């Protein structure tokens, strides 16, 4: 028999390939080599785990109970036997002897090699907090971890998962399905922030919360708590404690490089390899999550396949070279469709195409650069994920299908249908345009032919796009098709990110109970991922006004002056204005102001038009300190920087003035104490004059009071700015209490109805004085109700922001990262 | 791929997403380091090309910042003014490695960084 003899002969001359790592990368590399040249190597594989090779990324479904271990085995024992591979499992390699070209295992087994392949993968990263080594703290990396989690789930109780990335969320999902009460702790403000943008992260969080998980974002773990030698919970840095019977650490992975490092191979973050997966030792190759290729370490499975192909090509004499991978991600949580690929950070040279369908919970965003797709984030409908990924990887020119790209492959490949107008024209008359209100294309076209020339007219006459607004684009197409150039543009939208007007947005925030900026953007179909410098501050104000005490102010959506509680000047320094109630001050306050001006180098000190003192030239890093000094003298923020109540200007009134009819100064102080700190659509100025001579110029203020013998005249909508407008007389009241109540009511009406950045003067010009009067004076209860709402809102806004900052809050907004002092060489 | 010395300016969590912080440079231009809402990092000279406004104090949206002085929109990637405005502010090559932010030293001190001929 010739065959066995030649087999033996081959065995003696074959190169010896030793593989360290019996995981997905190691075995795949062997498979690729065998496929190219089955008799080239004599192969030995060392594995640390006491089992055959299995599909690690399917551990999540095993944990969730959707798959059994047997179903995720890739290479059963028969595969090793059939290919003459020696599998040494449960006996990890502990030493590489490069000089003698041999590896030494834990049990002392010495295996010589001609070629060595390191595929040690990665280790889970354990955050080094106290208690992280307690029994009951597990990682999520191999089958043993899954077994530990399943054992904990059998006992029931609470699970805490640290890490809201891909792995952490899959662990949380599995434990939740197994009946545990799960809390996810994530350091960053948004889940899966490396794969998802803020909008998709918010949708994901909402869905997981709906499924009963508690998701804590922006949560920093301080320590793991212990009871009776076992994990008992987790304490966050903000002091919150969460009970836990098991804690899963899933914050990330690190390439497993210790073996390679101690062998003296070049190692940075991972084992450094070239395009053929060769390490700094030509006899040693490395592949998988343990390597660093062109500066990148990968933690996903797809790049492994590409690496293994290049490696196998190289060692079998047909090198192809690996050039790095573009990766895509899918979350393996049943019922949640989520896909991300490429660079979705957007920006310039790049353009975002966004489609949102709130009713179906869909968010799609394609980032296009030049004529190519650079990245994609899909939530809710990922059917086209692979198509986008394909276009992305191949770098295909998408200019021809760009208009219809976001609608997916079926639509975009339709040739003529790629023009959205043509696509709409091709729809039959009974095709549904507006799903919310059941309006067909025929009905919309009839409505347009009957005289509706704008989206708004169509909305009001046949209700198409009047609810969720997702079909606005279709209605616009129908208008264009039906009317040609006669389409009238509707009222101005809030900004270019949305088709809704300010009024629409304010109404929908209340109707749909929208309570966060990403939620508004999703539900109202924003066309940008995170808005712009116009809509973010507007939405922040609208939400603050709609949900006092509930909405958390978003500092990153605030204009710098409101974020730093001071006025930025042309040289980048700030001006500081302490509050002087009604324009009153004292010698002590003046001394403190003078001291502060000296101490912090105020280059200009000026009296303002609103009867305050303004200190100019203060550096942003000095602001908390100057505020602390002014606070110590009893002064608080003057809000001279805000879309807020600015000042109440007064004249000296009946206390001193021979013409004074009432205590205008005292009333001014009371009004300022009632209204200070309130955020408004725009700045708001008040004045109280003690007689009709009007020395406080009350008739060019947003709210002005002119005292007369018989009571108080209340004036509204004045402005001394670009376009001078004298106030309109609202009404006359008899008592101070009434004057205060009417003032509060007017402010609240303005707060609730004006557009962001609309002063009272243009607001009243727009809505009419009669409207303001009817809203305030027709219903005898109106004043009381409006004023009551204002007071509720004030409960949450009369915290001195200066005192908060002076006590160390938000230091990051004031302090530099550090200062760089370059070393200057004499003769450099 | 940029070559040269990289300055470690600290961990990424010093900067909240959607915000920026500053790094003064002695005898040089102050640098603004940005973190976008999607978690990308960029560094620019902290001066708007229009009237030298501190870009670090602007509202960050997408990969752009709106200057707090006159609302110019500046690309964080290229430093160029967006829309109809024209002008450009120098960018500082930045990399994030193992949770820390690094700036290219030559660019930080205002020197033109050398560029490797072959792009990685």
Please describe what this structure looks like:
The complex is a heterodimer of chains A (828) and B (120). Chain A contains 27 helices and 38 strands. In chain A, strands 5-2-1-9-21 form a five-stranded parallel beta sheet. A five-stranded parallel beta sheet of chain A has the order 11-18-12-13-14. In chain A, strands 23-24-27-26-25 form a five-stranded antiparallel beta sheet. In chain A, helix 22 packs parallel to helix 23 and helix 23 packs across helix 26. The radius of gyration of chain A is 34 Å and the shape is elongated. The N and C termini of chain A lie far apart (79 Å). Chain B has a domain of 77 residues: Rieske Iron-sulfur Protein (3-layer Sandwich), CATH 2.102.10.10. Helices cover 3% and strands 34% of the residues of chain B. In chain B, the strands form three sheets. In chain B, strands 2-3-4-8 form a four-stranded antiparallel beta sheet, with no helix packed on it. The longest helix of chain B is centred in the C-terminal third of the chain and has 4 residues. The N and C termini of chain B lie close together (6 Å). The chains are: A alpha/beta (828), B mainly beta (120). At the A-B interface, helix 19 of A face strand 1, strand 2 and strand 5 of B.
What structural keywords apply?
heterodimer, A: 828 residues, alpha/beta, FAD/NAD(P)-binding domain, Enolase-like, domain 1, 5 domains, five-stranded parallel sheet, 27 helices, 38 strands, disordered N terminus, B: 120 residues, mainly beta, Rieske Iron-sulfur Protein, four-stranded antiparallel sheet, three-stranded antiparallel sheet, 10 strands, 3% helix
Kindly provide the name of the CATH class of the largest domain in chain A.
Answer: Alpha Beta
Question: What is the strand tally of chain A?
Answer: 38
Q: What is the ordering of alpha helices and beta strands of chain B?
A: EEEEEEEEEEH
Count of DSSP-assigned helices of chain B: 1
Q: CATH homologous superfamily of the largest domain in chain A?
A: FAD/NAD(P)-binding domain
Overall domain count of chain A:
5
Helix-strand category of chain A: alpha/beta
Low-confidence stretches of chain A: 1-11
Radius of gyration of chain A: 34 Å
> Which percent bin holds the helix content of chain A?
25-40%
CATH topology of the domain at 17-93 in chain B: Rieske Iron-sulfur Protein
Strand numbers in spatial order across the main sheet of chain B: 2-3-4-8
β-strand percent of chain A reads 15-25%
| Mean pLDDT over the residues of chain B | 88
Strand elements of chain B, count: 10
